[in-house]
Structures are given as structure tokens and as C-alpha cells.
């Protein structure tokens, strides 16, 4: 199957994304061009508003400043970023006023997992659990818990902030109220702002008595202009089904590294082989931002919703539905990252021994275009 993409073509049959050829822009590339038919969701998964991004009154931003850079944080609203400006220009999607939901902020943390869990069912260690929906606009649990629960600021000054959040597994549950997550953890976020960079570190510690799966990442939104281009060092893209769950790997052929025109693509896909370097450029603004992601952030999600004035470029440790895929693998290849911390090479699943902690760091570097 061939589909027009800008001045090139996508071939689903050969599993390669090819950026070549000449001619007028045809229809936009969509992951739907290479989707496989999938049975609709067979049951509705419960939505638990008590654990989600409901309205939170009287939120006060925590403001950091370093020369031309300013950062506003909302610890009580999921430890989110409200604004990040550089020389008075928004680097991240600007938020007017104080939002009522964490998902409409500029950026939020992803833990203890990124993206969706297939079927609302988690399998790990020979057990399985129903996981409730985490947002009322998604049929499947998505993006973990930390972005929808308040964080506590433990220290801060003019250019630094540290906040923490703990999760304990409820003692009891009923069939109508499944566990938000079956593993206890303690999470920390740190923000370090200087004149030309924002450095963020997210850590998650296993506070339970058994090994647990984990994932880390961020969901930064960026302004979308007619000339916005996204570049990233990635090797393969996962083609989705109609629930945005990965089904088939597609060789990108270097297309994302050459630059994707954000106004002409419709993506909500996870990419493998992320080398930790990505950028978003706005030629008409004379500005760009570089993303520098450190291990274990080996996957990247690119989200370009049609008709919206924003996109997301999300460095994450795990692919979509990673934990269930890991549970089905009879011979996973595990890499030791630190004492008590291992990572599955194929899915990015982090495995934390009791008391062990995994951490990830993302740096945003805004710059002027020459």
C-alpha cells in the first residue's frame, strides 16, 4: 500500500517510510494508512474521577527565573509546567490563566508508565490487574498517575525546585473500583533553570516488597505554526491500530531525522531507537528548541493532532503497552542500569527491585535560528 506524504510516499507493504520523489503535496500521511483492522473494544473500562485531573481550586504557580528565561510550575496540579518562556517567547504551549485540568498545561510528568495499557489490563509476574481509565477523554488507562495527583514542594530557590509525591496501594477494593495501580512508589521531580536551558529530572523509587515494572517520561506540548518542523534521531515507528496500540514496526528510512512538517502529518505514534536528540523549529519565529534525553529514555512519542495549535514530542523510557508485551516475552533481553534496576531492551520496561530507584533527565535548550 502506498500513500502520498508531502513530496514523498509511504509504503506500508515494504515497512519503510520513504521520503523521496517530486510532485505536489497529496493527502496527509496518517498512521491510518497502515493500520490493520482491529476488533472494537469489547467492554467499557471504568473511569475513576477520584484519581484523575479534576478541578483544583486556588492553585498558585511557583515561578523560577534566570535572565531571559522564566518557568512557572503547578505542583498541586500534577507537578505540571504552566509556562516556559525564553526572551518573552513561549517555548512550550502557553497556558492562559490557571487551568482546571493537568492535561491542558504545557508539560506533565509520566510515571509509573507512559502511554496506554491495552484492554485496561496489566500483566506482570504471573498476576494480572484491571487498571481503571485515568482520563475521561481516553477509553484506556494512559500516562500513569503522577500527572493527576498533587506534588509537595520540598525545596526551591530562584532557579531550582524539587517536589515529591508518594503513592500507597489502597488496602481494599471492589469490582467497581479497581486499584489505580498495584505497586507503591515514591516519585521526585527536580527543575533546574538557567538562561539557555531547562533541565528536568524525574525519579521513581519502589517502596514495595516485590519487584515492579516502571516507566518514566514527559509530555511536553509545543506551539504549532504553519512552518513547524520536528526532527528526531529515531530508527523505527510503531504503526497503530484503531485504539492507538502498536501493531507493526515501520522503518523510518531517516525521514524523521530529515524533518517532519508538523502541519502535514497526523501522528500519535511511538518511535524506537531514539538516540536522545530531537528538536522543534519554528522558522517564522526565528526560534527552535533542542531536546536532549538521557538513558533510559530510548523511545519517543510524536503527537500531531489535526486542527490543534500544538504538538507533543515526548521522550519516554517505554513503548506503548510495554509491560504487557514484556510479560508475554518468553526470553526478554535485560540490561542492568544500576543496582536493582534493569531495563528490557525490546519494550523499554524498567524493572525495579524493592527499594531501587530509576531516574531520567530531559533538557530543553531554546535557541535562535540563524
Keywords:
globular, disordered N terminus, 370 residues, Beta-galactosidase, Chain A, domain 5, Aldose_1/G6P_1-epimerase, 2 helices, 9-stranded antiparallel beta sheet, mainly beta, single chain, Gal_mutarotase_sf_dom, 7-stranded antiparallel beta sheet
CATH class: Mainly Beta
Helical amount: under 10%
Unreliable sequence segments: 1-16, 18-57
> Which outline best applies?
globular
**What's the overall average pLDDT, rounded?**
86
- Percent strand: 35-45%
Describe the largest sheet.
9 strands, antiparallel
User: Reading side by side through the largest sheet, how are the strands ordered?
Assistant: 12-13-14-15-31-25-24-18-21
Structurally, the number of domains stands at 1
Whole-angstrom Rg:
20 Å
CATH architecture: Distorted Sandwich
State the separation between the terminal residues, measured CA to CA: 40 Å
Number of strands: 31
Organism: Bordetella genomosp. 10
GO biological process, one term: carbohydrate metabolic process
GO molecular function: carbohydrate binding; isomerase activity
Protein name: Aldose epimerase
Structural write-up:
It is a single chain. This protein is an all-beta fold and 370 residues long. It has one domain (41-368): Beta-galactosidase, Chain A, domain 5 (Distorted Sandwich), CATH 2.70.98. The protein is built from 2 helices and 31 strands. The strands form 7 sheets. It has a 9-stranded antiparallel sheet. It has a 7-stranded antiparallel sheet with strand order 9-17-27-26-23-19-20, with no helix packed on it. The protein has a 4-stranded antiparallel sheet with strand order 5-6-7-8, with no helix packed on it. A hairpin with a 4-residue loop joins strand 2 (8-11) and strand 3. The longest helix is centred in the C-terminal third of the chain and has 7 residues, at 322-328. The model is unreliable at 1-16 and 18-57 (pLDDT under 50).
Amino acid at each position: 500500500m502506498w500513500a502520498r506524504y508531502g513530496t514523498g510516499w509511504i509504503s506500508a507493504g515494504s515497512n519503510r517510510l520513504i521520503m523521496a520523489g517530486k510532485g505536489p503535496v497529496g493527502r496527509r500521511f496518517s498512521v491510518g494508512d497502515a493500520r490493520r483492522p482491529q476488533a472494537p473494544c469489547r467492554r467499557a473500562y471504568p473511569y475513576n474521577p477520584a484519581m484523575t485531573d479534576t478541578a483544583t481550586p486556588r492553585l498558585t504557580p511557583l515561578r523560577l527565573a534566570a535572565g531571559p528565561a522564566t518557568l512557572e510550575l503547578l505542583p498541586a496540579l500534577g507537578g505540571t509546567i504552566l509556562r516556559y518562556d525564553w526572551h518573552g517567547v513561549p517555548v512550550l504551549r502557553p497556558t492562559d490563566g490557571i487551568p482546571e485540568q493537568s492535561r491542558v498545561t504545557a508539560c506533565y510528568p509520566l510515571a509509573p508508565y507512559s502511554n496506554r495499557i491495552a484492554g485496561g489490563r496489566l500483566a506482570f509476574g504471573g498476576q494480572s490487574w484491571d487498571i481503571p481509565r485515568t482520563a475521561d477523554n481516553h477509553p484506556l488507562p494512559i500516562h500513569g498517575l503522577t500527572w493527576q495527583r498533587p506534588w509537595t514542594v520540598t525545596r526551591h530557590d530562584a532557579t531550582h525546585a524539587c517536589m515529591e509525591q508518594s503513592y500507597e496501594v489502597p488496602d481494599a477494593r471492589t469490582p467497581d473500583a479497581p486499584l489505580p495501580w498495584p505497586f507503591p512508589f515514591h516519585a521526585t521531580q527536580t527543575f533546574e533553570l538557567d538562561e539557555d536551558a531547562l533541565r528536568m529530572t524525574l525519579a521513581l523509587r519502589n517502596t514495595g516488597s516485590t519487584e515492579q515494572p516502571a516507566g518514566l517520561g514527559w509530555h511536553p506540548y509545543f506551539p504549532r505554526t504553519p512552518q513547524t518542523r520536528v526532527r528526531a534521531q529515531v530508527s523505527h515507528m510503531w504503526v497503530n491500530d484503531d485504539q492507538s496500540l502498536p501493531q507493526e514496526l515501520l522503518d523510518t528510512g531517516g525521514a524523521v531525522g530529515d524533518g517532519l512538517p508538523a502541519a502535514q502529518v497526523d501522528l500519535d505514534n511511538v518511535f524506537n531507537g531514539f538516540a536522545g536528540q530531537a528538536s522543534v523549529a519554528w522558522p517564522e519565529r526565528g526560534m527552535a528548541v533542542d531536546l536532549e534525553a538521557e538513558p533510559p529514555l530510548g523511545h519517543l512519542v510524536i503527537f500531531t493532532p489535526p486542527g490543534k495549535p500544538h504538538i507533543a514530542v515526548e521522550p519516554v523510557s517505554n513503548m506503548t503497552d510495554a509491560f504487557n508485551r514484556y510479560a508475554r516475552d518468553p526470553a526478554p533481553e535485560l540490561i542492568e542500569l544500576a543496582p536493582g534496576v534493569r531495563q528490557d531492551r525490546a519494550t523499554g520496561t524498567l524493572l525495579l527491585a524493592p527499594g531501587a530507584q530509576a531516574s531520567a533527565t530531559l533538557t530543553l535548550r531554546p535557541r535562535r535560528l540563524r
